[in-house]
Write a structure and sequence with these properties.
Number of domains: 3
Distance between the termini: 55 Å
CATH topology of the largest domain: D-Maltodextrin-Binding Protein, domain 2
Shape: rod-shaped
Structural class: alpha/beta
Radius of gyration: 32 Å
Largest sheet: 5 strands, mixed
Number of helices: 9
CATH class of the largest domain: Alpha Beta
Order of helices and strands: HHHEEHEHEHEEEEHEHEEEH
Helix content: 25-40%
Number of strands: 12
CATH superfamily of the largest domain: Periplasmic binding protein-like II
Amino acid sequence: MELRHLRYFVAVAEELNFRRAAERLRVAQPAVSTQIKELEAMLNARLFERTTRSVLLTQPGRVFLDEARAVLNAAFHAEQSARNAHHGMVGTLRMGLITPAASPRLAKVLRHFHQRFPGVQLSLFELTSAEQLRRLRAGELDVGMLRPPVSFPELKCMFVDQSHQVLAAPAGHRLATKRKLDWKDFDGEGLVMIQPGQQHGFYDAFLSACAAAGAKVHPAQFAHDIGSKMWLISAGFGVAPTSAALAEVIRPGLVFRPLPPGLPPVQTLLVWRRPGEESLIIRNFLESFARFTK
C-alpha cells in the first residue's frame, strides 16, 4: 500500500464521485478506478458500494477513511518538518556562554532569533571558556560566547565586545577601601581563581603585572565557574580581577575597584565550527547576532 492509494481513496470518499475525484486529483478517471480496485484487493474488503447513480462508503470504508486521513496528515507533517529542518526552522541550538556574556544585548539577539524561528529550541549552558572550546570541538555545542584565544583551525569566531578589568573584593577588605590601587598593593594577597585547566589565560596579564611590581600573590581558593567565584569573594575568601561587565550587577558583599593601568581589555568572542560544518540553524543564529553587533 502506498500513499497514492490513500490519496485516491480519500478523494473518492469525500467527493463520492469518481469523475469529481479524478478532476480534484488532476488525473484520468480510469486511473482512479484502478487505484481503488488495487486498494480493495490489498485490503480484501469492499470500500465503496457503486451503482450507476451513486457511490457510497461501506462500513469498512468509513472506518478506513479515518485511518487514511490520519496517515496522510502524518505524512504531510513529516514532510513539513523535514523541509523546516532543512531550512533551519526547527531543531535545537546548543549555546555555551560565560557569565559576563549574559548581557542585555544577548537578550535582544535571543528574542529576535526566537521571533524569527520559534520552532528552534534554545539550550543554554553557563560554562568556562576552556570547557566551551572542548565541547565545541567535540560537537557537543553549536555556538559559544567565550574569551580568547581560539587557536583551533576547525573553529571560527566573531568579535562581540570588550571591557576593561576591575578588581572584585569583599566589602571591608583593605583593597576595597583604597582610593587608588598600585600593583605593589597586591603583595601577599590571596586570589579566588577558576580551577586550573579552566582559566584559559584570563589571569596571565594580571599575574605578570603583579610579578613585575614585585608583588607576590597566591591562589587562596578555586571555583568551578564565575558565579561561584564571585560568591566566594563576597564571602571573604580573597580578591580577583574580573570583567567590568560583572560590576554592572549589584551583588551584596562585593566591591569593585579600578585596577592600575596596563591590563589589556577583556574580549568576548562568538565561536562556532568553521564554514561548511555549521547547520542552517547556526547560520540563522549568526545572522540574528550580526544584526545587533553592527
